[in-house]
Design goal:
mainly alpha; 1 helix
């Protein structure tokens, strides 16, 4: 089978498009991970406070009993 220059150009463009898509997926994944990490850092104080209050309430209830 003979490949002409038009076919090789199409193949090259296809490979470039696949590389761009892969790079974009990696960038999107990194952005999502950074956003999740940021949300975790913002929510951590509230979650820790809730957890500590719950544990302290249980401790006080057991001391009173």
């Amino acid at each position: 089978m003979r490949m002409d220059s038009n076919t090789s150009i199409k193949t090259e463009h296809t490979q470039q498009a696949l590389r761009r898509r892969k790079r974009r997926r990696i960038q999107t994944l990194l952005i999502v991970l950074v956003m999740l990490a940021g949300a975790g850092l913002l929510l951590y104080p509230m979650a820790a406070d809730f957890w500590n209050r719950m544990v302290q309430t249980r401790a006080v209830m057991s001391y009173n009993a």
